[in-house]
């Protein structure tokens, strides 16, 4: 005669061990440490000189040499790091603003305008989201080669203006935040579609547009493979590609170690600042887009 092991019934509303508040906080703490520790290592390492890299621990502070590292960083190769900063700003800031405007216009049109093939166009856009950007590098290179744009600013700038995921988000934001009744009233008053978009649709999509701008900015700022394929002139490199080129010399020339670490720290600061300054807007935009 077998005896079944009695099960202990939990009172209604009682969380299990794996869903308790303590367990959730522990998981969040581990995730936060996983994200913050590399940044902390970057900050401490940027203050070290060449000798301290081999004589101190990962998070130990050596002789404070951040000023010397910054001076060496901007003096290396006749100040080429300043070119890299300029290029990154042009690619990421200007590209994010123009690209987000294009995404907003496309998403608004798909959501609020009636035209033949609208559903097919949106389906193709969703398909584009699934294609990894690295798979497009070779076709883009061949196209840029035909147009004689290889090793120019435009070879990197023009492709970043299009983003299928941004169009998808803009379509969701337009559906959630732009009422059809307001658009109909504007059309009855004689406003054209372009004027309606810029004066009514775009302001109503403001929080969602900030989210798209932030996503575009991060994607372009971290864009590495496309500039690697398109560019050979070091004065056209963005910061991440230039720092990578320096990192390949570290084994032969240890003096590049502080330059790579300090340059990487400067490259991270704009991303942290963008998220910190725009956190309220992009969180509101994500919440609005998630309702659709």
TrEMBL record:
Question: TM segments?
Answer: 23-43, 89-109, 121-141, 209-231, 259-278
Compartments, record wording: Cell membrane
Q: Does the keyword Transmembrane apply?
A: yes
Regarding the membrane, this protein is recorded as: Multi-pass membrane protein
- Record-linked PROSITE patterns: ABC_TM1
Keyword Lipid metabolism found: no
Q: Which domain of life is it from?
A: Bacteria
Cite the SUPFAM superfamilies for this sequence. Answer: MetI-like
Under InterPro entries, the record lists: MetI-like, MetI-like_sf
Q: Provide the ABC transmembrane type-1 domain boundaries.
A: 85-277
Chief subcellular location equals: membrane
Q: Which UniProt keywords apply?
A: Cell membrane, Membrane, Transmembrane, Transmembrane helix, Transport
Q: Which family does it belong to?
A: Belongs to the binding-protein-dependent transport system permease family.
* Designated name of the protein: Carbohydrate ABC transporter permease
Q: Which organism is it from?
A: Streptomyces fimbriatus
What taxonomic classification does the UniProt entry list for its organism?
Answer: Bacteria, Bacillati, Actinomycetota, Actinomycetes, Kitasatosporales
């Amino acid at each position: 005669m077998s005896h079944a092991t009695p099960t202990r019934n939990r009172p209604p509303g009682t969380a299990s061990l794996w869903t308790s508040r303590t367990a959730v906080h522990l998981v969040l703490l581990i995730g936060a440490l996983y994200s913050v520790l590399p940044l902390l290592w970057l900050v401490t390492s940027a203050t070290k000189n060449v000798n301290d890299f081999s004589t101190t621990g990962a998070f130990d502070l050596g002789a404070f040499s951040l000023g010397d590292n910054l001076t060496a960083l901007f003096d290396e190769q006749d100040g080429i790091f300043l070119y890299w900063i300029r290029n990154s700003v042009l690619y990421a800031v200007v590209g994010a603003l123009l690209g987000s405007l294009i995404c907003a216009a496309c998403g608004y049109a798909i959501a609020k305008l009636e035209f033949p093939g609208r559903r097919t166009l949106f389906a193709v856009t969703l398909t584009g989201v699934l294609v990894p950007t690295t798979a497009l590098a070779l076709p883009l290179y061949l196209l840029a080669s035909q147009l004689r744009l290889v090793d120019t600013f435009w070879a990197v700038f023009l492709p970043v203006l299009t983003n299928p995921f941004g169009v998808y988000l803009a379509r969701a934001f337009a559906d959630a935040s732009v009422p059809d009744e307001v658009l109909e009233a504007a059309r009855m008053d004689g406003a054209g579609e372009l004027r309606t978009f810029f004066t009514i649709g775009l302001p109503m999509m403001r929080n969602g547009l900030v989210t798209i701008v932030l996503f575009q900015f991060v994607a372009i700022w971290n864009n590495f493979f496309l500039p690697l394929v398109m560019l050979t002139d070091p004065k056209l490199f963005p910061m991440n590609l230039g720092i990578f080129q320096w990192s390949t010399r570290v084994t032969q020339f240890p003096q590049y170690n502080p330059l790579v670490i300090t340059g990487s720290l400067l490259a991270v600061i704009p991303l942290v600042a963008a998220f910190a300054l725009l956190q309220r807007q992009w969180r509101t935009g994500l919440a609005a887009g998630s309702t659709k």
